[in-house]
Amino acid sequence: MARRKQSNRPRTASGRLSRSKAAQNAAEQEAMAVAIAQPHRACLPKGLRRSQLAESELGRLRLSHAITPSEFAAGQNYRQLVAAYRRAISAPRGVESALGRLGSDSFADCRVATESEEARRSRLDRQYAATRAALHALPDGQRIASVLGRVVVHDVEAGAEIAALRAGLSALATLWKLAGPENVASRAGTRPAQLRGWRAATDADSDSRLFDDDGS
After folding, report:
1. Where is the region Disordered (predicted)?
2. Is the dihedral of CA 97, 98, 99, 104 positive or negative?
3. Are 200 and 52 in contact (CB under 8 A)?
4. Is the dihedral of CA 16, 18, 23, 24 positive or negative?
5. Comparing C-alpha atoms, which of 152, 146, 145 is closest to residue 131?
6. SS3 call for 62
């Protein structure tokens, strides 16, 4: 297997790769240069290519302002719910990007430490059923649900299905009370400097805004 050329990395007098702080910084810069040159990042404005959001199609749509903050939040929640539900029924969880790995366990953790496995499964069933019902209640709901599955869960490019994707995300944002006028803080959060520093929500952050026990 071919190894990546490392001729530009700092070395010691013996010729070994240096472990100094400068060498570590050089290694990080080299890795970042490779990352931002990837096609899915190269299509973004230069100032946004380092953003963690660029790891997923949903994040790239947010970076390019193709979806709103509430639609993006709804997509995150939907991905987390599907991952937790599939884990509970031992089904495949779909593609995991860096974004998914950072936020996919929010639904899996019990909000009450004494919650039984059966109670947790029942709660996930209700939440998942409420979500699917909201999507299928839309005109052409089956297709919209399918689009959300491809883009949000399996990280496939939205392409010409962006309108269907937004319809589904908007419905979920309404269901989960995420929708509303995009305030000044939300608009400010789309500036490149802030988007570059975006981080996936922690479990505690997600649990504070997800669902009531009836799935709404």
Report:
1. 1-26, 186-216
2. positive
3. yes
4. positive
5. 145
6. helix
**How many other CB atoms sit within 10 Å of the CB of residue 59?**
27
How far apart (Å, rounded) are the C-alpha atoms in residues 104 and 59? Answer: 15
Exposed / middle / buried, residue 66 (Cβ in 10 Å: 0-12, 13-18, 19+): middle
pTM: 0.59
Instruction: Locate all alpha helices (DSSP H) within the chain, ordered by sequence.
Output: 21-36, 39-42, 57-63, 69-88, 98-103, 117-136, 141-148, 162-175, 184-188, 192-196, 203-207
Tokens of residue 22, six digits: 């400068």
Over residues 59-103, the pLDDT tens digits come to 888 888 899 999 999 999 999 999 999 888 875 555 555 444 444
Q: How far apart are CA 52 and CA 63, in angstroms?
A: 10
Copy the structure tokens of residue 151: 């883009």
In DSSP terms, 17 is beta-bridged to 11
- Sign of the dihedral defined by the CA atoms of residues 81, 84, 86, 89, in that order: negative
User: What residues are paired with 11 via a beta bridge?
Assistant: 17
Give per-residue pLDDT as tens, 95-135.
555 444 444 444 555 444 456 888 888 899 999 999 999 99
* Cβ proximity of 57 and 156 under 8 Å: yes
